[in-house]
Write a structure and sequence with these properties.
Layout lengths: L3 E2 L2 H21 L5 E7 L3 H17 L2 E7 L5 H13 L5 E4 L9 H7 L11 H9 L7 H11 L9 E5 L6 H10 L3 E5 L6 H5 L4 E4 L17 E4 L3 E2 L5 E2 L4 H4 L5 E2 L6 H21 L1
Parallel strand pairs: 1-11, 2-3, 2-4, 5-6, 5-7, 7-8, 8-11
Antiparallel strand pairs: 9-10
Amino acid sequence: MAAQLIDGNALARQIRAEVAGRTQALKARGVQPHLSIILVGEDPASVVYTKHKVNDSTETGLSATLERYPDTMAEAELLARIRTLNADPKVHGILVQLPLPKHMDAHKVIETISPAKDVDGFHVQSAGALLTGLPGFLSCTPYGCMKLIETTGIDLRGKNAVVIGRSNNVGKPMALMLLGKDATVTMCHSRTKDLKAHTLMADVVVAAVGKRNVLTKDMVKPGAVVIDVGMNRNDEGKLCGDVDFDGVKEVAGWITPVPGGVGPMTRAMLLVNTLEAAERASQ
C-alpha cells in the first residue's frame, strides 16, 4: 500500500489562516507586526525565496519590507543597517537572506540581529534556548517538519527517529526538537557507517543532507514517517529531494513530496515566529 502524502501546501495554508486571525487581534490593539527582510546580491534562488516571503506576509496581514542591496555592499554597512532595525520598535522580525556574498561573515551578521527579532531562529541565543528548553525562536525548517509530523498522529514518545544531516540550521535543531517530544534520536551524517542499519530501525526519518537518493526503498522500515528536507535537481533538471520518492512511498506510511512538503512549511513558520515576536514585544 502506498504511503499517505503529507501535504505541506495544505498545512501551510491552515497555519497562514491562523496567523491572519492572530494578526487581526494584534492590529485591533494598535500593533502592526512587521518583518524586515534584507537581500544582498542577486542569487536567483534567494530572489525567489524573498519574494515568496513578502507575499506570504502580505496575505496574512503582516507588514513586510524587502531591502535589496548590491553584492558589493560592505559588511560594516550591513551590520549598521541591522543595528538600526534592532533599535526600531516598529520592526518585530529581521531576516537576512542567506547565502551572503563571500566577503561577508554570515555568523557575524546573524549574531548582530537582536535575539528578540531573530525570527529565522539562527542566533546562538536561539539555539541555546532550544538546547536548554527555554522560550526562544525555533529554526523555521525543523519547526515546520515537526508540524508535518504532527499531522500523521504519531506519538513520538519512545519512537526511534533518525535525522540524516547535522547542519546548524536543520539537522541539529531537528534532533533537539524530536528529543523534546521524547523520541529516541540518532543523528547520521556523511561519516556514519552503515546508514541503512540505522534507518531500518526508525519510525521517523528526516532526510536533510542535500544529496539525491540518500534514502532508498530498501532503507525504510514499513510504515515509517519520512520527511524530505532536500532541495536538489535530477538529471532532467526537475526539483527533487534527498529521498527516492517513487521507491520509498511504496514502503513508508507517510511521506512528504518535493516540492510541496517542507518548503511551504518553512515559510509558514517564519510568519508564526514574526507574529510571536510582535506579541512578545506588545506585552
